[in-house]
Amino acid sequence: MRNNNGYRNLIAWQKSNLLAHFIYDLTAKFPKDELFGMTSQMRRAALSVCANIAEGYSRRGLKDRRHFYQMAMGSLTELEFFIDFAYERKFISHVDYEKILEIHMETARVLSGLLKST
């Protein structure tokens, strides 16, 4: 049986955790009137990626595990929309946008590999 923290060894979880921290730091600079809008939505989507990877890891059946990894990919795609929208609204600088896209793309690549291996 796996230990309770085994998901932390997954590169997909490590990348998504980095992404979530970056999103938290980034959204802290958003306009205050977006606290219950974009800020909240982006943070929830970012955390959902990590949480679904962790929950998927804990599942014994491949079908069940794959379902949670697919949910993580869905949240990652949702987050991509919010990143683009925030950039278009000028809530994110070009430098931060490039950095977050790099982290996002790497997370998507690794998560896609995890999905294929499941």
From TrEMBL:
Where does this protein come from, organism-wise?
Candidatus Daviesbacteria bacterium GW2011_GWC2_40_12
Say yes or no: keyword Ribonucleoprotein present.
yes
**Coiled-coil ranges per the record?**
none
The answer to whether the entry has keyword Ribonucleoprotein is: yes
Q: Which UniProt keywords apply?
A: Ribonucleoprotein, Ribosomal protein
Q: Which Gene3D superfamilies match?
A: 23S rRNA-intervening sequence
Could you identify this protein by its name? S23 ribosomal protein
Could you tell me which SUPFAM superfamilies the record lists for this protein? IVS-encoded protein-like
The protein's matches in Pfam families, at most eight in alphabetical order, are given as: 23S_rRNA_IVP (PF05635)
